Amino acid sequence: MNPVAIFWPMVAHAFLACLIYALLAYRRRIAVVSGAVRPNHFKTRTEEPAVSAAVAANLLNQFELPVLFHAVCLALFATNGVSFVAVALAWLFIVARYLHAFVHVTSNDLRYRSPLFAAGFVILVVLWIWFSLHLLGAV
After folding, report:
1. How far is the C-alpha of 54 from the C-alpha of 59, rounded, in Å?
2. What is the pLDDT of residues 37-82, one digit of tens each?
3. Burial class, 19, CB count within 10 angstroms (exposed 0-12 / middle 13-18 / buried 19+)
4. Reduced to 3 states, what is the DSSP secondary structure of residue 44?
């Protein structure tokens, strides 16, 4: 397997973060143009209008758990540990992130959002275990 393949899920996550930034800007602009808030309401997170609050929360979320994802991908590449299994797990994590983000910025229904977050978390843990096994020479 080409080790560069591990970078494509990372690129896909960067694209997701850019989409969320664009959606946040759009929803904040709508809130200002509609007169619901003034631009100075965005100085602190406590004054985020309802129309953009879930998007702002999701944007923060893109820089929490995914930091560990990017770290393990880079570690796999640096140690020649990229394999079909690692790349498949990386893509599964990204699919979970996209689905989680979609639910978060639309319905924000915890019945769907929480299991999607948990799935991404479990996939990431498995990816770190896979990396650990690679370091031990077991895979």
Report:
1. 9
2. 888 888 777 778 888 999 999 999 999 999 999 999 999 999 999 9
3. middle
4. coil
Buried b (16+ CB within 10 A) or exposed e, 71-102: ebbeebbeeebbbebbbebbbbbbbbbbbbbe
Rounded Cα–Cα distance for residues 27 and 30 (Å): 5
Tell which residue, 58, 64, 67, has the closest CA to residue 10: 67
Q: How far is CA 20 from CA 17, 51, 55, 101, 132, in A?
A: 5, 14, 7, 8, 32
Q: What are phi and psi of 9, to 5 degrees?
A: -65, -35
Count of residues for the chain? Answer: 139
**DSSP class per residue in 5-35:** GGHHHHHHHHHHHHHHHHHHHHHHHHHHHTT
